[in-house]
Automatic annotation (TrEMBL):
FAD binds at Y223, T235, S236, R237, L238, S239, F271, D371, A372, D373. It comes from the Bacteria. This is Deoxyribodipyrimidine photo-lyase. Residues 1-129 form the Photolyase/cryptochrome alpha/beta domain. Its cofactor is FAD; (6R)-5,10-methylene-5,6,7,8-tetrahydrofolate. Signal peptide: none annotated. GO terms for biological process: photoreactive repair; response to light stimulus. The lineage of its organism: Bacteria, Pseudomonadati, Pseudomonadota, Alphaproteobacteria, Hyphomicrobiales. Gene3D superfamilies: 1.25.40.80, DNA Cyclobutane Dipyrimidine Photolyase, subunit A, domain 3 (1.10.579.10), HUPs (3.40.50.620).
């Protein structure tokens, strides 16, 4: 009798302990992906749905080569599984663990339900290096500050080695009903907005592994410094692959231990630490299930957000009149990704200059990022707002002009995403309003016509935000 392996946020065959365990039973293996619009879980944004289509398509091909046919079904997970189990007489179900609280609840009740029906159910690690329920401070509580969290984690464990993909899966002899991926309509129809996303990304496990190799062979050298420069290819861009589980942090850490990496220790350690922030975000989310909707620091509940709809729209469209902010928002819209430094600048601008509630920014990122992640997105937005655990202090208000001058000194990033400013001299690329009419004319820039005048004045906005933040009782 066969066994089932349930795929969710782990669209890979390598370092997939659930798949390996299913293969090790020696029974026929039926791989299943259920498109369940679990109400407790936010549905994916359009860019992630595009990614999901391609990733599932590659996974199906990889499983086919191993001898198994990926069954695609849409519907509630429990009832879909019950039907499959009745139809096939399956005796066991394997899966890899998910760590956001809504999914933990769903998976725990599913486990109980299936065990009550007499099935063997087993879950495995893979998404995270640490188990958030087991990692505790000396005082037995969860961590709220990154540095001790990471010191403890990186000091005490050397992550396990990844497991190989099974050599083959014993095929299930009968053909099972399966949806056609195309019928799930995950891809855009007209207009085909995914053109730039297609150019920027290749979803799937093979591309994830190639991206890691490329990064370790090249951009890791100088990562500690270059990771802050949005115009260069200085980071790994592994985030969407991690979000879909096409690669695991165990594979990344194993590769970082490899003797063939030719990069200074400082660069390797900085990269490990960034992956550590992902662990920390999940740690926070696990212990604070409302991280995406509730201020971690409740004194922020009293914050006087203005939530001006027009300003939110200007920000979303990259039309704020602040070039570095607009470049970032357009990079996001066009490619489904934004450089980390610019994520911080754009988020700070929305929250502090425009006084729009961080949750609205979090929701926009969720809808548009290919790497939208329930833990990283929520924790990072709260970090920028100052409402989070181990957050940026409330008085830290990113100056969009100085940030631009420091991290994109020649304006290369801005010229790429805000072409209407591309002819401006470097001196004015971050502050076009400061240029004389002659300079603007020569560059073909007409403020208020082909590029907006700033939607708020930086200094006034900064002072207003500081006053509002100071009024909160004891923000930290
Ligand atoms: P690299 O620099 O190559 O880092 C490697 C990996 O480490 C990343 O893929 C990511 O998994 C992890 N990582 C790096 N920086 C961070 C960080 N600050 N916090 C948590 N993990 C990190 N990241 C997401 O994966 N999904 C999100 O939805 C997301 N939303 C964000 C929202 C805001 C407002 C901010 C400021 C940051 C957000 N981040 C998010 C974190 C970070 O910007 C991205 O992980 C990073 O830009 C991805 O690019 P990369 O893979 O090239 O990163």
């Amino acid at each position: 009798r066969p066994v089932l392996i349930l795929f969710r946020d782990d669209l890979r065959i390598h370092d997939n302990r659930a798949l390996s365990a299913a293969a090790d039973t020696g029974a026929p293996v039926i791989p299943v992906y259920i498109r369940d619009r679990e109400p407790a879980r936010r549905d994916l944004g359009a860019a992630r749905l595009w990614w999901l289509h391609h990733s599932l398509s590659e996974l199906a091909g990889a499983l086919q080569k191993l001898g198994a046919h990926l069954v695609l079904q849409a519907g509630p997970t429990a009832t879909t599984l019950h039907t499959l189990i009745e139809e096939t007489g399956a005796t066991a179900v394997f899966w890899n663990r998910r760590y956001d609280p809504a999914c933990i609840e769903l998976d725990s009740s599913l486990k109980l339900d299936l065990r009550n029906r007499g099935l063997h159910v087993e879950s495995f690690d893979g998404h995270l290096l640490h188990e958030p329920s087991l990692t505790k401070t000396g005082g037995g509580t969860s961590y709220k500050v990154f540095t001790p969290f990471w010191r403890s984690l990186s000091g005490h464990i050397e992550p396990r080695d990844p497991v190989d993909a099974p050599k083959a899966l014993k095929p299930y002899p009968r053909k099972l009903a399966s949806d056609d991926l195309k019928d799930w309509n995950l891809l855009p129809t007209a207009p085909d907005w995914a053109k730039r996303i297609r150019e920027a990304w290749t979803p799937g496990e093979t591309a994830a592994r190639a991206r890691l190799d490329d990064f370790l062979g090249d951009a890791i050298k100088g990562y500690a410094e270059r990771r802050d420069l949005p115009s260069v290819n200085g980071t790994s861009r592994l985030s969407p692959h991690l979000a879909f589980g096409e690669i695991t942090p165990f594979q990344i850490f194993r590769a970082l231990r490899s003797k063939t990496i030719d990069a200074p220790t400082g660069d390797v350690d900085t990269f490990r630490k960034e992956v550590g922030w992902r662990e920390f975000s999940y740690h926070l989310l696990f212990h604070n299930p409302d991280l995406a909707t509730q201020n971690f620091n409740p004194s922020f509940d009293a914050f006087a957000w203005e939530n001006d709809g027009k300003l939110l729209k200007a920000w979303q469209k990259g039309q704020t009149g602040y070039p570095i902010v607009d470049a970032g928002m357009r990079q996001l819209w066009q490619s489904g990704w934004m450089h980390n430094r610019v994520r911080m600048i754009t988020a700070s601008f929305l929250i502090k200059h425009l006084l729009v509630d961080w949750r609205k920014g979090e929701a926009w990122f969720w809808d548009t990022l290919v790497d939208a992640d329930p833990a990283n997105n929520a924790a990072s937005w709260q970090w920028v707002a100052g409402s989070g655990a181990d957050a940026s202090p409330y008085f830290r208000i990113f100056n969009p002009i100085l940030q631009g001058e420091k991290f994109d000194p020649k304006g290369d990033y801005i010229r790429r995403f805000v072409p209407e400013l591309s002819e401006l001299p470097d001196k004015y690329i971050h502050s076009p309003w400061a240029a004389s009419k002659d300079v603007l004319d020569a560059a073909g820039v007409k403020l208020g016509t082909n590029y907006p005048v700033p939607v708020v004045d930086h200094k006034k906005a900064r002072d207003r935000a500081l006053q509002l933040y100071k009024r909160l009782k004891g923000p930290s």
